[in-house]
Amino acid sequence: MNAFDVLLSDSRTQLDAFVEDYRRALEATLDGLTEQQARRRLVPSSTTLLGLLKHVTWMQRIWFEVCIGGKPRRELGPVQSPEESFRLDDDDTIAGVVAAHRRACDTARGIVADLPLDAVVTGHRAGPRTVHWVYLQVLRELAHHCGHADILREQILAGRDERV
Predict the structure, then answer these.
(1) Nearest Cα to 134, choosing from 53, 61, 64, 65?
(2) CA atoms of 117 and 115, how far apart (whole Å)
(3) Which 3 state secondary structure label does DSSP give 120?
(4) 1 with 125: CB under 8 angstroms?
(5) From CA 38, how far away is CA 63, in angstroms rounded?
(6) Does the pLDDT of residue 159 top 50, yes or no?
(7) Exposure b/e, 102-121, CB count within 10 A at least 16 = b
(8) Rounded to a whole number, what is the distance in angstroms from the first to the last CA of the chain?
């Protein structure tokens, strides 16, 4: 489907297109970088380009697998908070984090494939919400973190010093 077709499509097609665009954009911020550059901290927080992709992978798993799919949160692994999801392990690599992100995206697509946007889901600990609401939340978070990633990549490519 081309960009013009999306403009005139139904809400679900438009939401899927926007989510996919942001997923690809986040992955693309790692293109051509070294492992060291992808891990570089340029802000006081633990935010790095590789950490951002690791975080959005976890975030999407929470919203799609837990909230919509009903999977117990503890089955996602040891990460229990958004802050923890940014942390990089010594064995995290660009290829590994990208692969995990793609698996999470594939799983998310499968979970929502047959659900209408107005379906009410009950897997979130704060209460029920619609699939449409979850899409909007994921889109909001992806867009937010794409902005962070764009700025970090620009700083890395400009050869910015590691100090803040």
Answers:
(1) 64
(2) 6
(3) strand
(4) no
(5) 25
(6) yes
(7) eebbebbeebbeebebeeeb
(8) 43
Sequence ranges of the domains in the chain: 7-157
- What pLDDT score does 81 carry? 84
In the structure, how many helices (H) and strands (E) does the chain have? 7, 2
Q: Which neighbouring-strand residues pair with 98? A: none
Average pLDDT, the chain: 91
Name which of 104, 101, 116, 117 is nearest 149 in CA terms. Answer: 101
Burial (CB count within 10 angstroms: exposed 0-12, middle 13-18, buried 19+), residue 130: middle
Which amino acid is residue 160, in one-letter code?
A: R
Percent of the chain at pLDDT above 90? 77
Q: Is the pLDDT of residue 8 over 90?
A: no
Q: How much is the pTM?
A: 0.90
Taking domain 7-157, whether its CATH number is 3.90.1720.10 is answered by no
Res. 162 pLDDT band, cuts 50 70 90:
very low
CB atoms within 10 A of CB 160: 13
Reading the block at residue 71, the tokens are: 């999977």
